[in-house]
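Researcher: For the record, we're logging two predictions in this thread. I'll number them. Prediction 1 follows.
Model: Prediction 1, sequence and structure:
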Amino acid sequence: MEEGQTTQILAIITTNRENFAGGGVPIFVAKQKENLQIISSTLEKTLDASAHEVDQETMIIVKH
């Protein structure tokens, strides 16, 4: 990473809301895995950021 460049988590998308307790990042809850992928892709494009899979139930949107 270049000096002065920051990485920021912009959103969390999950199918299991119980894994997260508050915080400073919006959390989107998907009903099923297919919706998880759709929401992640939409946010990735809209926010000009990258989607990363944390596990089968969770994606994060990161701005590099």
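Researcher: Logged. Prediction 2.
Model: Prediction 2, sequence and structure:
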Amino acid sequence: MSAAFVDRLAHRFADPGLLRQALTHRSLTQGRDRGLASNERLEFVGDRVLGLVIAEWLVERFPQEREGGLGRRLAHLVNQETLAAIAGRIGLGEALIVPPSEAATGVKRRATVLADACEAVIGALYLDGGLEAARDFIRAHWAEEVESVAVAPRDPKTALQEWAQARGLALPEYRTLSSEGPSHRPRFTVAVTVGETSADGTGVTKREAEKAAAAALLARLETRR
């Protein structure tokens, strides 16, 4: 990994092995215990730490915001798109450790892979340096996103439902296409249909996958206007 990437973490690891594990994609490990050597367990930790730090930050930054608005802001700030964008800015993709065969497929540029690895890095920072190290990293790299959302964004499922109702269409229909990954970190793929138009979305919960699908369908419908 490059020195520039390590510098962006602003933390000297007492256990460098944690950072290496955070950057190790599961495709590099084999066997039923492959998750123990890859970044999946650190991703599990990082997901919780990120949610806590962002929630704490939002309550501090928006003292007049109602719970619903805070929840929408939180969902936006921890979603796959935001995580992948931040991972790209700090050069995380180039630092990922994957087999040459996987690198050739462009795995280092996939949004899901980048988002998962970003959470794993947060998990590694937390386990190595405590909440302060994780908080410093998150506040440094999420500041632009926190300040750029002037109004709490609407939940894409709500927005899609309102879009359909305004045009006299049936309510959106969601169906689960697949569920993959380890039991502690499954990945769902969901399809949503309005009229004759459909789109897919993925997430670590069915609700997150439904929201991703709704956002994708909204974007598709808007381009047809």
